[in-house]
Every structure is written in structure tokens, then in C-alpha cells.
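Researcher: I've been going back and forth with a colleague about how Release factor glutamine methyltransferase might be arranged in three dimensions. Neither of us has a model we trust, so I'd like an independent prediction. The organism is Euhalothece natronophila Z-M001, in case that matters for your notes. Sequence below.
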Amino acid sequence: MVSGLELAHWRQKSREVAVAHSISPQEVDWLLQAWAGLTPLSLRLETYKKRSEIPLKGAWDELRQLWEKRLQQRIPVQYLVGETPWRDLQLKVSPAVLIPRPETEMIVEIALDRAQDSFKAGHWVDLGTGSGAIALSLAQALPEGTIHAVDQSSEALSIAQENARHLGLTNNLEFHLGSWFSPLNSVQGKITVMVSNPPYIPTATLSQLQPEVAQHEPKIALDGGNDGLDAIRHLITTAPQFLQNDGLWVIEMGADQGELVKELLTQNSNYENIEIIKDLAGLPRFAVACVRK
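Model: Here is an independent structure prediction for Release factor glutamine methyltransferase. You can compare it with whatever you and your colleague have in mind.
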């Protein structure tokens, strides 16, 4: 237990220290939401300050130690508390999975908006599912569809399955251990929509990423090879064998890769209606195409 006033004093000091360390002060609030069960509204209005006792998830000292780890070791706060919000979901995360980014949320809406109505009861695949963020959002939005979540990491797949159980989204979700399309032979030629946030960072630039990413997030989910396009090339080449005619192909990519990805899709005779879509920051972030056989 801790008093509201004591927690407010620690919050204020910690937010100041966060700014000095070039860390968003919002992360202090994320930590308090997870550790003290405070809502974003109570933190914004500071109504919690009036409470004489606030129960904590663990010891008060442990909370302060977690924040020191964030500052000194640059461990992402999401890994420290073991969870992160994404869209309207609360997801378990660990260093075995990439932390779902806010900008990736758009990929779900893009896939749903551009899919034909008849596709919504079909087979959808999320390749490289990680925490299951995309697959779980699709399962929530498509109760009549079958969502296939694929990852080559058994640790990541275990976390995705745990998230599905916790959220009650197991009825229309199937999990597959393997690389890209390799475990999906049973639905070859029947997939209506493929969605993926593949690794797309060039190998040489990995060391230049923020320490939170370079030192703590799984490199297998980041490293896209020499030019960052290894996985994307593979998905362009192999998807026509697995998607049905008119099937939808949707990926996230690096903000500087749009023209290259568009060229790769154009050079492959199996795609049409190729579109590069900007994210909320105005950066070209997503590629969409239809398979033509």
C-alpha cells in the first residue's frame, strides 16, 4: 500500500527524470496503470491523490526499482510490467516478442476496409504474429472468419496463445509454428487475406536504433537483411501460391521502402491494384495488393 500523496510526489519527480533521460513522461503513467491499477483519467485529473491507501501489484520498493531499470538499463517499460495496450486490447509481452507499435494499428483497419465482404468468413493469416496483436484484433472483428496466426518462435507463439485465452478469442483462431507460409499447406490456395508486419530494418542499421530496441527487442523480428527487404521479397514470391485469386496482400514496411516494394510487386506478374498507404504521420507505411493468377 502507498498513499495517494506519496505516489503523486514520486510520479512528479519520475516524470521530470524521464524528460532528462529523453524518455516520454507518459511511460511513468503506463507503469502506474499496470502497478497501481490507476486509470488514465485518474492520472490526468490527479483524483488518486485524495486516496489514503492505494494497493500495489507488488512492493513499493519494487516499483521504484523497476523505474530505475528503465532509466539505467533502457529496458522498455512494456517488458518491465509484462503487458502493453494496443487498440482496445491489453496484451502480454516479453522480450520474446516485438512490442506492438501504435502505427501498426492501422494495418487492421486497412485489411478490413479493403477486403471484399465475401472474404470476411474466409481464411485470414497473420504471418510473424509475435504477441498476436494483429491476429487477435482480426479475430475480434471477424467472428465468422478463421484467423491463422503464424510464428517461427515457439516462445512468441506461446505468448500469442496466452493472450488469446485471456481475451476469450480462441474460437476462430488457429496457431501455427513455422516460417511464413510453410505450416499452412492445409489452406494453400484458400487464403483470402494475408497480413504481416515482417522484419524490414536493414542489418547494418540495427545498431543505430534506440537502445530500447537494439538491446532488448528480438532481432529476428527486426532484421530484414542487407536492404531490409528479404522477408518482403519472400512474401511477394510465395503469397500467390497460398492466396486465392483476388486475395488481399497487406504488409507494413519501412517509411523509405514504399517505392521499392511497389516496384517488386509490379515486377511480379501475380499482383494488381497495388497501393502504398501512409500512416497517421503521413509516412508511406503500408503496401496493399490483390493477387491475380
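Researcher: What would you highlight for our discussion?
Model: I'd start with this: The mean pLDDT is 95. After that, consider the following. The longest strand covers residues 243-252.
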